[in-house]
Amino acid sequence: MAIRIFNHHARIIAASTALAIIAMAPGHASAQGLFGQITKRVKQAVQSEVTNKAEKETRKATRCVLGEADCAAQQRQRNNNGSANGSSASADLTSGPSALISPYPGSVEQSREYQDYTDYPRVIGMDRSRHAETQVLEGALTRLLYNNPKGRSTLELIRNYRNALEARGFKVDYEVPNAKSWILNIREANGMIAYGTDVRYFTGKLRYNDGTAYVSILVYREASGFGRTNIHILQTNEMDAGMVGVDPSAMAAELERSGEVNLKGVFFDTGRATLRPESSAELDTVASLMASQPQLTMKIVGHTDSTGSMANNQALSLRRAAAVRDALIARGVDGQRLHAIGMGSRDPIASNATDEGRAQNRRVMLVRQ
């Protein structure tokens, strides 16, 4: 297609340029000199035309990924035509189960899986052995895999996806910008495919209808230039407690209902009590809630999984609870309204026999006093 466009424009430009030069050329100009001028002008004009077209296509691609309505409609039409002709055109998600984001133009869908309700281990970190740390979620799950369009870098692809999501209020929880040797068991953790050394990944969440959509995207490229994009979307029917980082009223409602809230938006470095930067949104919301209810007092309860000794787990859980308390005090909350407690591994909410269960057991709870 690109070659045909190039040749078409080249013929038009060559003819018009030749006429212009012949009209301007002096009578004693040699045929050889005239031909050289024509050739030079044609090359310059064609190069300018191709450059302008490339810039236009890049801008169009970005608008498509951002979900521009007319582009989405054109993409659907192309997909329908492709299906009728038996080709493997990429699907448009604006009318699919996620209704959140369209694939980057030129991407070719390789597989699609949808489940109405299941559990999904979302990768939210990496331990010292470069294995995945996960957060287990439940809801409707969409898994999509695309072959990347040729000539597009992993940076360009993943940045466009992220920009499109952030335009809808998406908040990133965790990202790996460009790791040469990344999570060893990513396929075992959540089913994503990753090969090569150019791997980029991010995950986060946004409000969607009356619930929460957790989106994880991984883009990779092999040395040969071949690459794929994994898109996983887990949708819940209700506002997840992890979304309280953007809505204090949701946290207040959960406290009123059950008397406690699991701070799923609070993250620590593995084996430590160091809060990660992506915990800020959740902590800001807790501080806002405390400010809106001056009589409210809270227990901050840290929990661990069963890995390690009881004594170490007890100490770690207390340090993590204390770190949350200190972060809230730094945000203006009166320390007398907050009481840090460490439970270690004594109160699991899932089995410690699996990675998913251990991930659920590592948590910090807010408990109303």
Automatic annotation (TrEMBL):
GO terms for cellular component: cell outer membrane. The keyword Membrane applies. Pfam families: OmpA (PF00691). Residues 1-31 form the signal peptide. Transmembrane segments: none annotated. Residues 75-91 have a biased composition (Low complexity). It is found in: Cell outer membrane. Residues 255-369 form the OmpA-like domain. InterPro entries: Bact_OuterMem_StrucFunc (IPR050330), OMP_bac (IPR006664), OmpA-like (IPR006665), OmpA-like_sf (IPR036737). Its main location: membrane. Residues 75-112 are annotated as: Disordered. Keywords: Cell outer membrane, Membrane, Signal. This is OmpA family protein.
